[in-house]
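INPUT
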Amino acid sequence: MTPAARLQAAIDILDAWAPGRPMDRLLVSWRRANRYAGSGDRAAIADLVYDALRRWRSLAWPAAGEGAGDGGRARILALAAETGDPEALFSGARHAPAPLTEHERERLAERAERGVIEAPDALRLDLPDWLPPLFRAAHGPNAEAVMDSLRRRAPVDLRVNRLKARPEQALASLAAQGVLAAPVSIASGPATPDALRVTSGGRGLKSADAYLQGWVEVQDVASQAAAAFAGARPGERVLDYCAGGGGKALALAAAMGGEGEVIAHDVDPARMQDLPPRAARAGARIAPLPGPVPDSAKASFDLVFADAPCSGSGAWRRNPDAKWGFSPEGLARLTRVQSQVLASAAAFVRPGGRLVYATCSLLEEENGARVRAFLPGSGFELSEELRLTPLDGGDGFYAARLVRGPA
Ligand SMILES: C[S@@+](CC[C@H](N)C(=O)[O-])C[C@H]1O[C@@H](n2cnc3c(N)ncnc32)[C@H](O)[C@@H]1O
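OUTPUT
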């Protein structure tokens, strides 16, 4: 595909999207319907689409006050103007976007002249109107930089699986196949000695031996820090209460050096379908439960990890489509579920054991506020909290470690 045809494809995909619709599914259907597109085309189109979604409101500025109008074309045009002369690409040639209208030219000139500095807060920061006050309440003087960070691409991080390889072995194996990476850590919080950040060649990762043989897993450095924060030790009995695809369960199993027991649970066991093959690849022993955790397991685990369902706001760099479908009602629904998760997970912690509540949210309503609502009368004490934002070098993450008092 020509560069211009890629732009038109991105416009078509964005025009088929509406807030609340997951973009990854739209991209899959586009790939199925356009099998002529090669892997380079697909990657370039996905990059354009996600770049546009990260800055969906500000890219349309100064169009319609709310920035909602004009669909994909205005956004892709604004992106193209940032990197070159859009007239050459918006040429009207076969498969290329139609030539610019006079109105579009005027708008581009206005953007170039005025920038987006004078746009209203939420528009400039690319969030729905109701969210900046929540970010400001949670992050005080850092709020502006935290919100701004969500407008940029996220790096690809790896966790070296200690059950199979050491970081230097993984680095060498990846480099031999063109995937370059370097150790990475977060600015504050637990050490992440197994974390690597891909610096180039990331497209070859999933066909690299180190990945296929389970030496490395894709996992953001902040997610690794949250797992490390739990302090899982060899020989412990651990319950991953919201296991989903198993990213944390795998990290916990690796930290335990293959000694002890990791049991995985999810309210929707189908969400754990990838876990057995991932655990097999990683050489980890993780037992997924086909249903609820039995009552007989109450008060029996050294560590219960509750990676609760959340807004995912800490990962909006990766899933920017999610921020546009998020609403106050959605937040209220989530906080109810999070409180339920905390209360149900707590029952499985043994006296003296730890309960770790975690989210990849940047909103205090989903984080400290849930823990503080849970604590009174629970028999647990708050031991430590971890609050990470993209300013620390990874995704946004929150974790609280609670210790259960004696029986
Ligand atoms: C943030 S995701 C988990 C991600 C996973 N831990 C990982 O690291 O890959 C949250 C998971 O919680 C599950 N969940 C939602 N409500 C739950 C509940 N009441 N009890 C247990 N799990 C729940 C969801 O099905 C979802 O898979």
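end of record. The mean pLDDT is 95.
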